[in-house]
Design a protein that fits this description.
Layout: E1 2-7, E2 10-15, E3 17-18, H1 21-26, E4 38-46, E5 61-66, E6 72-78, E7 91-98, H2 104-108
Parallel strand pairs: 3-4
Antiparallel strand pairs: 1-2, 4-7, 5-6, 5-7
């Protein structure tokens, strides 16, 4: 599926795979950098700090936090084996975009 995120007055289309209950806990762990972009959706705002980790993720990825209208709240390039990635602002969605040749144009929009 495609999601349109709004960032700096731009609309960026990202092809994503929606995560389910189990895959939400696994995310990019033990995957290759050529895996699909992942979309994590929550029914109410998440305010927990340290909601992401990249322990056992062997490649860099772009984490994008979104509000309920797909406006970018924050984004960060995440390095492998980072224990805790903190986000202090409430969010409804996270998109994880692996660094690979397929995602070059998306990543250039952010970094």
């Amino acid at each position: 599926m495609k999601i349109i995120v709004k960032h700096k007055n731009k609309r960026i289309s990202i092809l994503v795979r929606q995560t389910g209950f189990i895959s939400r806990g696994i995310g990019l762990t033990f995957k290759s950098c050529n895996t699909s972009n992942l979309l994590f959706t929550y029914s109410r705002p998440v305010t927990l700090e340290g909601t992401l980790t990249s322990v056992f993720v062997f490649f860099d990825f772009l984490a994008i936090w979104l509000d309920k209208d797909n406006n970018v709240i924050d984004y960060r390039m995440v390095k492998p084996f980072t224990l805790s990635i903190k986000q202090n602002k409430p969010f409804y969605k996270i998109v994880e975009v692996p660094v690979n040749s397929r995602n070059t144009q998306i990543i250039k929009q952010f970094v």
